[in-house]
Specification:
alpha/beta; two-stranded antiparallel sheet; globular
């Protein structure tokens, strides 16, 4: 996280660009857009008006003006940098990490509660007892109705680990809109993908998603698991419902807008669920799709816009007979080699019944996922130390597994450096940025909350102009 002063903190990549968006002359206004997403067919009459919808550069640019090299890494391939004279692994932070700490960086876990509490007996000598996961996945229970709470949670957590000299975690969320809306009680309303594509022009969708993305960014969230880029069809309608934009054209148009808006605010979008879904819910059982019937062509948007990809548990019969996120043929072969994805690759929840009840215990599934080419292991529980001992043993005994862990680790750290969560230079490799002082931290929190509420007000106004309860 190269910087002039410590104020860049983990929002170093939040350089907000000025953009202006005009609405189209045809404005449609559904008469019912509620949490259950039962949308009316009633349209607003055409008026022929042209309405200017400015998306202003926010006060967060004041922070950006104090940064050095505050550029987005999202448009660059996630590859480990090369260091002249020595590998990255032989230098700086990476050389000092224990095997346990390395493996922990591959985990994405949940976070309990709405605030961060420092471990009372933590010190750098027993850091392995408190391994820092690569990231945290936030759910609705982590959000209150106050932006101040989530901003404090994310900033206090990462500043604690910076103070301790350990790799700060990233924060992530599922904020698609509609039913999958973890920030429902906090942020401005966000319609489902289906409703966005049905009732909004691309210009209005851009404004809607930009306001939403700014709110996500102001909360200290780095990754958004969205959008769903599967085209809707008979095989997945029962499971995905209104989470789909519709046909391929709508997916590319509105899914692309979603991605662009997230990246405008340096929130890393992760498209899902590769290679696709059947009507079966993977939370409950193992979905199957015949490869000949699976159209995964829309996932090339991950290459075009350099996003992350979430790989689901669907068995793609005809290519492999194991769940996709555990398959070298699917992850390494189809996704990375054939389609050409270079961004971070996430598993869906390893603890889902789709795996657990079909012969893949947690550690076996984690090993297979890492060997397949998965970079990040998602688990929807807070405690994960139980998995580190057996994986550490594998790391020490299995050279192929160790090489796969090291490859994913360097990709994750390279991505974190691009997001300004870490520093990197050729001479020293990776390093942890300096912690903020209490004054700097307090001032940053105040400004981020101020900008959050401004974006929320604009997003709510736009929503209520085109959708009503």
């Amino acid at each position: 996280m190269c910087k002039k002063i410590p104020l860049v903190f983990f929002f170093g990549a939040m350089v907000f660009a000025v953009a202006f968006f005009s609405s189209c002359s045809e404005k449609k206004k559904p008469s019912a857009e509620i949490s259950s997403e039962n949308v009316s067919q009633t349209d607003k009459a055409e008026t022929g008006e042209t309405e200017q919808l400015p998306f202003e550069q926010t006060g967060v640019e004041k922070l950006a003006d104090q940064m050095t090299d505050a550029v987005a890494a999202d448009d660059k391939a996630v590859v480990a940098p090369e260091v002249s004279g020595a590998s990255v692994a032989e230098k700086g932070l990476l050389a000092s990490m224990t095997n346990r700490q390395k493996i922990a960086q591959l985990f994405l876990v949940t976070f309990g509660g709405t605030g961060f509490a420092e471990p009372y007996d933590f010190d750098t000598e027993n850091a392995d007892s408190y391994p820092v996961p690569g990231g945290y996945l936030l759910f609705s229970y982590n959000f209150t109705e106050r932006a101040e709470d989530i901003v404090s949670l994310t900033s206090d957590c990462r500043n604690f680990y910076r103070t301790s000299g350990l790799v700060p975690p990233y924060f992530s969320v599922d904020q698609e809109g509609g039913l999958v809306n973890r920030m429902r009680d906090l942020a401005s309303p966000l319609p489902s993908a289906q409703s966005i594509a049905k009732f909004l022009s691309p210009e209005l969708a851009t404004a809607m998603y930009n306001y939403g993305a700014e709110q996500i960014a102001c909360c200290g969230i780095d990754v958004n698991f969205g959008p769903v880029v599967e085209a809707s069809g008979n095989q997945n309608e029962d499971f995905l419902g209104n989470r789909c934009y519709g046909n391929e054209e709508k997916v590319r148009t509105f899914g692309g807008i979603f991605i662009d808006c997230m990246k405008n605010h340096y929130v890393y979008p992760v498209v899902k669920h590769f290679p696709g879904n059947s009507a079966d819910d993977p939370h409950l059982g193992l979905p199957f799709i015949e490869a000949a019937d699976c159209d995964y062509s829309t996932f090339d948007i991950a290459v075009q816009k350099n996003t992350g990809v979430l790989v689901g548990h669907t068995v793609l019969s005809g290519i492999d007979e194991v769940p996709s996120c555990l398959s070298k043929k699917i992850v390494g072969g189809l996704l990375k080699e054939k389609i050409g994805v270079s961004g971070l690759v996430f598993s869906d929840d390893i603890l889902m019944d789709a795996l657990q009840k079909n012969g893949f215990d947690s550690v076996t599934a984690m090993k297979m996922a890492i060997l397949s080419g998965i970079d990040v292991l998602m688990i929807t529980q807070k405690e994960y130390a139980e998995f580190l001992d057996p994986l550490e043993e594998l790391y020490e005994k299995d050279q192929e597994f160790a090489a796969a862990v090291d490859s994913s680790l360097e990709r994750i750290l390279a991505w974190k450096a691009g997001k300004k969560l870490l520093n990197f230079d050729d001479e020293n490799g990776y390093s942890v940025p300096e912690a903020l002082s209490e004054t700097e931290l307090s001032g940053m929190k105040e400004k981020l909350c101020e900008d959050f509420y401004k974006a929320k007000e604009k997003g709510s106004a736009l929503y209520h102009d085109y959708f009503k309860s």
